[in-house]
Amino acid sequence: MINILEEVGINNYICLSALLFCIGILGVLFRRSVIVMLMSVELMLAAANILLVAFSVLHEDAGGQVFVMFSMAVAAAEVAVGLAILVAIYRNMGTIDIDKLKNLKG
Question: What percent of the chain shows pLDDT beyond 90?
């Protein structure tokens, strides 16, 4: 059986991961919506997970894939907590606009 990494190449996975990570960074830096920012953070985590799996397959070690499973569990918990905080903020303030949430700094 031919390894898919040998057919596609590690460089393509590195480029894909870098592209996804850069899109995530741009989403966090330039978007003003909290929900889009959360999605951008998830995109950056997905890029890191792709790279971990690719190098795990390249080195024939399952450690990277196990780490990705833990990372996905943490990402799911992060989304649940982040959305719960957003719902609480929306109930109290009536908006989730970043510019209006800057008043929460203290």
Answer: 55
- Is the pLDDT score of 21 beyond 70? yes
Question: DSSP string spanning 46-99?
Answer: HHHHHHHHHHHHHTT-THHHHHHHHHHHHHHHHHHHHHHHHHHHHHHHS--BHH
pTM for this model (two decimals): 0.83
Q: How confident is the model at residue 1 (pLDDT cuts 50, 70, 90)?
A: very low
Domain spans of the chain? 4-97
Q: What is the CATH number of domain 4-97?
A: 1.10.287.3510
Task: Give the integer Cα–Cα distance in Å for 40 and 20.
Answer: 9
